[in-house]
Specification:
It holds the Pfam family ABC_tran. Keywords: ATP-binding, Nucleotide-binding. InterPro entries: AAA+_ATPase (IPR003593), ABC_transporter-like_ATP-bd (IPR003439), P-loop_NTPase (IPR027417). It comes from Lacicoccus qingdaonensis. The protein is of the alpha+beta class and 226 residues long. Helices cover 31% and strands 21% of the residues. It folds into three domains: 2-73, Rossmann fold (3-Layer(aba) Sandwich), CATH 3.40.50.300; 90-166, no CATH class; 170-216, no CATH class. It has seven helices and seven strands. The structure holds adenosine-5'-triphosphate. Adenosine-5'-triphosphate binds next to helix 1.
């Protein structure tokens, strides 16, 4: 999914990234930690094609992101303070995002708007910082891009909403003795079965009824999926 080899980058001759290497082949969630000014946003910009690597190799989902229009179908970068038109309300922003993202999942978008309790008809320019973050999360997740990058995704969220975000992809988690049972919103594919078996997990289809109940809970048990 992400392949970085010996990446170096400088702004105005000031070295920001030096010999960065990263290879991730599995779908997973990766967090970037680092001091302020250490180059995290710069790395995200390079991964999403907004900046050109100084030297080295950068590939995301098999494509070189810089100067490559095809890359928009492989990687999505949701920046902090993502720019929205002053004229847009939530529905406008979702409509625009759906036009540009091949894998757009409207059902998921509607569910997330509901969980975050975002007012659909209010102009985004009138949103609070936390609400701005929420609409950015909704678009980032519902786009279902092969690689999605968030910069400061919990900025402005209160503790409850931050938990909602971090816990967004697992629908239910139950402890049965020493067993932990988790309901995840994932297609039941051969690949998923193989991944589960390789990790000593037992996997079974959730009853549709239980799935729907979990999906529509307002104070949902939507919990983390790693
Ligand atoms: N457009 C730019 N032109 C010149 N220097 C820049 C530019 N953008 C960032 N920098 C510099 O590059 C360095 C890394 O910045 P970057 O925003 O990538 O850091 P960061 O790790 O994301 O920081 P933070 O945690 O504060 O968000 C900083 O020294 C910053 O001043």
């Amino acid at each position: 999914m992400i392949n970085i080899k010996n990446l170096s980058f400088a702004y105005d001759k000031k070295n920001i990234l030096k010999d960065v290497n990263l290879s991730e082949t599995e779908p997973l969630i990766v967090g970037l930690w680092g001091r302020n000014g250490s180059g995290k946003t710069t790395l995200m910009k390079i991964l999403s094609g907004l900046e050109k690597p100084g030297s080295g190799i950068v590939e995301v989902d098999g494509v070189v992101p810089y100067n490559n229009i095809e890359a928009m179908h492989h990687v999505l970068f949701m920046q902090e303070d993502h720019p929205y038109s002053d004229l847009w309300d939530v529905n406008d922003a979702l409509g625009f995002a759906s036009d540009f993202n091949r894998n757009w999942d409207q059902t998921l978008a509607d569910e997330l708007v509901y969980i975050f309790q975002l007012p659909r008809n209010q102009k985004i320019r009138k949103f609070s910082k936390g609400m701005n973050t929420m609409i950015t999360i909704v678009i980032g997740l519902a786009s279902k891009s092969p690689v999605t990058i968030f910069d400061e995704p919990s900025n402005g969220l209160d503790a409850h909403m931050r938990k909602q975000f971090y816990d967004m992809t697992v629908l239910e988690e139950r402890k049965l003795g020493k067993q932990l049972k988790v309901m995840v919103d994932e297609a039941y594919t051969e690949n998923l079965k193989m991944r589960a078996e390789a990790n000593d997990l037992t996997i079974e289809k959730a009853p549709f009824q239980d799935y729907l109940v979990n999906l529509t809970k307002r104070e949902s048990n939507i919990n983390a999926f790693a």
